[in-house]
Amino acid sequence: MTAYDELMQFQRETEALGQIAGRLGWDQETMMPQGATPQRAEEHGAMANILHARRIDPRVGDWLQTAEALDDVAAANLRHIKRDFERTAKVPATLAAELAKTTSLAHRVWAQARADEDVAAFLPILQKVVALRREEASAVAGNADPYDALLDDYESGATGASLGAMFAALRPRLVALRSAILDQPAPQTLSGDFDEVAQLALSEKLALAFGYDVGHGRIDKAVHPFSSGSGLDVRITTRTSLTDPFNCFYSTIHEVGHAAYEQGIDAAHLLTPLGRGVSMGVHESQSRIYENQLGRSRAFTGWLYGQMRDQFGDFGIADEDAFYATVNRVSDGFIRTEADEVQYNLHVLLRFDLERALMSGDLAVNDLEAAWNDRFAADFGYAIDKPSNGVLQDVHWSEGLFGYFPTYTLGNVYAGCLHVALRDAVPGLDDDLAQGDTSKATGWLRENLQQFGGLRTPVETIAHATVAVPDEGPLLDYLEDKFRGIYGL
Q: What's the rounded mean pLDDT across residues 123-141?
């Protein structure tokens, strides 16, 4: 075998072990008994040790020096492996294992603290997570910005400065649109209770409508919905609320967007670096365009209205137009994952600024709750009422995912660009969406983006699909056009 063949054989085993590690995380969120936490933390640490050792195996360095890229696929595989090798080599194995173990423990501490509304119970282990991630970021960054090193884990090529500039361009128009909308009468809300079993049944129907392959996936419940896995085993979770079925339905559609990306990647890339989504920003572009531009469109909500009437009977909304306004209702709220399209990115920008301050040392962990509450009041005009609606609402920091939050807004920006290209490529799309048929839209995304997995860089991936360099303009134009129409502005 050539050096490239030997390297890829070794890499396939590493990728397979990474999938197993991911399955441990899925099980922890969905099936694992509460008392298993200490043992699972040890298991996560052991897997992290194994994966770290494989990623810096001296043979990988030797193979990289002699392997030849005979085509674009080989060149992309080598690029990913080299980046991972060089990055991992900078992080001591003991630190990688300690991070895995600590974040596994922190997740359970966070979940209990959230349930108990007890920030103080979470802060000591968060302090440890922050310290470990700072240590890792410093090791990787060298003389560069440590936060950029964390960002690079999720969005290769992005920097705090570049995202900060993009977010600064987003903020004024978002704030102005929000202000104009909230001066108008609000659409109706749903009334009554919605049976959980019926919600989950319609949730599965929505997953199938958006192309989720349940032959190679599962739908389970979790406190914080997520998607995991790739290739032939891709799993999603959702959640239910007795009075808010949209929470279930749109969480499902969102996670199906992530899952469809993984399931849509060319099977030839299975268990290779190209066999998974190229970045979290690109991943989020798929979940957001599925959930918002398609799932919350006037055409698709008209179909969903009929499905809900069949499932639940009369729920207080008179017709499809009123239902479309209800689905897209802009209103005050604390929870990022439940936020409307207009305000969602303001939630993300808050987190982006706070975590940059945490990583730089400008903000102490013990001051995080006060900083969160002050920023929220400034941005949204009202006070946080309890920690689970504030600093304890998101799982990410307990898992050490610093640098992850900004990819949510970047995904919205990418989705805005993709939506323009999709509408140009598929005229008459609304006729299909009105019948609950998303196949032309999801097919276009699979053909132009999803199938390539990690073949290109994140920005190149979006530019290939849209034939344009991504920027925030299309997202802002879409939001203003949509919500000015709904609210008669």
A: 96
Beta strands in 58-184 (DSSP E): none
State the Cα–Cα distance between residues 423 and 440, nearest whole angstrom. Answer: 11
269 carries a ligand binding annotation: no
Write down the catalytic residue from 15, 43, 155, 255.
Answer: 255
Query: Taking the chain, what is the end-to-end CA distance rounded to the nearest angstrom?
Result: 66
Using the CB atoms, write b or e for 169-182: b if 16+ within 10 Å: ebeebbeebbebbe
Beta bridge partners of 236: 219, 227
Domain ranges of the chain: 3-143, 160-487
Q: Is 254 a known ligand-binding residue?
A: yes
Tell me how crowded residue 451 is: count the other CB atoms within 10 A of its CB.
16
Q: Residue 381 pLDDT > 90, yes or no? A: no
CATH class of the domain comprising 160-487 = mainly alpha
Label residue 222 by pLDDT band (50, 70, 90). Answer: confident
* CA–CA separation, 53 and 57 (whole Å): 6
What distances in angstroms separate CA 355 from CA 168, 248, 390, 402, one per listed residue?
A: 17, 28, 14, 7
Residue 278 token pair:
């190229």
Q: Looking at residue 219, what is its pLDDT?
A: 94
Give the pLDDT confidence score for residue 34 in this predicted structure. Answer: 85
CB 72 within 8 A of CB 455: yes
For residue 194, the cross-strand partners are none
Please, what is the Cα angle at 317 between 312 and 323, to 5 degrees?
A: 100
Nearest to 247 by CA among 282, 228, 223, 280: 223
Helix/strand/coil for 332:
coil
Whole-angstrom CA distances from 404 to 5, 153, 154, 367, 467 are 33, 8, 6, 21, 26
Q: Which two tokens stand for residue 107?
A: 């997740």
pLDDT for the residue 444: 98
What is the model's pLDDT at position 104? 87
Annotation marks residue 255 as catalytic? yes
The alpha-helical segments, DSSP class H, found in 183-244 are 196-209
Predicted model pTM? 0.92
Q: Is 258 annotated as a binding residue?
A: yes
- State the CB neighbour count (10 A cutoff) for residue 164: 15
